[in-house]
Amino acid sequence: MNEELGKDMKARITKVLGGSLHIRHVDTGSCNGCDFEMGALSNPIYDISRFGVSFSASPRQADMLMVTGGVTRALQKALLRTYAAVPNPKIVLAVGACAIGGGVFGETYANAGGIDQFVPVYVYIPGCPPRPEALMQGILSAIDKYEEVLKRGN
Amino acid sequence: MHKEHLLPACQYIHGERKARLFTMVGNDERQINGSFSLYYVFAIDEIHFFVTIKIALSQVDPTFPSLAAYIPALDWYEREVNDLLGLRAIGHPNRVPLILHGDSLGIHPLCKDYVETGLLPQTSDMTDTVEYMGEDVTQIPVGPIHAGIIEPGHFRFGAVGDTILHLDAKLFYTHRGIEKTLEGKTVQEARFLIERICCVCNVSHSASFAQAVESAAGIEISQRAKFLRCLYLELERLYNHVGDVGNICSGYGFAVGSSQGARLKEQLLQLNERLTGHRYLRGTIVPGGVNCDLDEAELVLLMESINEIDVDFQEFVDILLGHEIAMDRMETTGKLSLQQVDDFEAVGIAARASGRDVDCRRDFPYAAYEQLDFAVVLQTEGDVLARIKVRIVEAFNSMLLIRQILSRLPKGASQTDIPLIEPYTSSLGWSESARGENTHWIMFDKNNTIYRYRIRSAAYSNWPVVPLAVEGNIIPDFPLINKSFELCYACCDR
Questions:
Q1: Which of B181, B279, B490 sits opposite A131 (nearest CB)?
Q2: The CATH number of the domain where A79 resides is what?
Q3: Which residues 111-130 in chain A show a CB within 8 A of chain B?
Q4: Predicted ipTM?
Q5: What sequence ranges are listed for the domain NADH-quinone oxidoreductase subunit D (chain B) (predicted)?
Q6: Which of A43, B160, B225, B332 could tie B289 with a disulfide, CB 3.0–4.6 Å?
Q7: Pick from A33, A73, A82: which is nearest to B280 by CB?
Q8: Does the distance separating the beta carbons of A70 and B151 come in below 8 Å?
Q9: Residue B177 in domain
């Protein structure tokens, strides 16, 4: 299943982005689970870089943001500043239950919940945490969104 | 006890009786007895005994003497009760708010009369970080968003050339207010939050929670449940240790090592999923027993997989420890002395690699550990190499433990019912995660709901020693030193 997904991904990345897709990760208050599964994408079993995906160190070089965790009080600003640094079009993926809607933590004095209150989200990947295959599927959907936005021209 | 007697009492227990600080909890008990309370829990390992010192603080004068100068580990605890409960430690050397990042708002969310009004405001802007000045000192700020796929924290280095003079680590970015959210939740509801304090220590947190509930309820779980708990706890330790050994290799660009570690860890995660339905074993341990029993076929699969991984991990370790450059990078890097880990009451690998002989599986046996044979691994050098060696041996020990459990797994039920717990009973639960002991302190309210919950994770005890380990090292070695501790931010921040 990974292989098929990967082949699709490679073909779509070549067509839409011209060869490679750069993703920046932002942890806005996750429990580390989604982060670990994103990390797993680079292990020798999934090895997502062979399909043209790389995780970039800076948002300035990124085509997409993958955000994990509900937005905490201390990380609101970091999320907004990272988002501002991404070149247009800014495609954001909400990874996992917390990033989607706050998860089990909900809204507290320290946690605002889902990230779409702060930045526009194109793809929601459910799971706690989403498995690596789900992340790959989500990235594939995000490439479709990227193509749509490019065609629309904004 | 009256707060005037706190200092001599703690000096006696901690200084003379060599008890170690297990946790410190602040609690708003004004509804129950009209005052705030502070609980100082000390553990005396040799006699397997806990001593709790309780002081009451009135609403009119919510202050207490700071002991941080005598027990440096109390630094964070004392600042935390000031942030969240408004209890002020008189004489604390550093009064900057910890959890609230420098904001003295006068709002204390853990007080029972706090009214939930959304996010607390943010007034300060990084005023709680150290500023480095001087002609030769360069200030290097890093984070909270890092270059890799990791959790958030802000590190500020004061460096002279390549050498780190001082590091200020600012954490609590992922503070989600879990302890407050837990209040009023039933035991059944609470378990979902407990499992999400930290994904990669979730079995350990669930075990600490379950044991605290069972001890308050005065019940004993079945033998089968006890052995299965140990099994899941060891599976969690195993994938963490194997993955972390690989991860340390990426601290010095040793690609063979990081790939092998990542591959073996993925195999273990897939094994976890086949056994329990979750790659990180969530939902396995519940109060009263375990939620996931294993059948014969699954036990056979587990045994075969462990045998395979044992061989592969041995080969990986032989390559790593036989590699001259890898050894050179790890030896003498990031040294911590026994005195330093003792002062800050470090636990887990960070402690054992510097010769601090603590492991709550042996010192305060829980689940089935009393019935299992295992050795506590100690090193004395306190450098990156010592920490990786402790991990390696512990990973092999985990495999031995899993084999023992499989050969002796008793038959029987895997769950026991939880009776009604007397309101305002407080209890402790603990377990040894891959990073050290996770201690949970619970006070119950009516109908098995939670009145107050305090989570003291291994990361909370260990983070304060990380800046000590990097002093005098070069900046390019910081990722390596940090990885050698491999502490969770989510566990610490809650």
A1: B279
A2: 3.40.50.12280
A3: 111-112, 128-129
A4: 0.92
A5: 263-419, 429-494
A6: B225
A7: A33
A8: no
A9: no
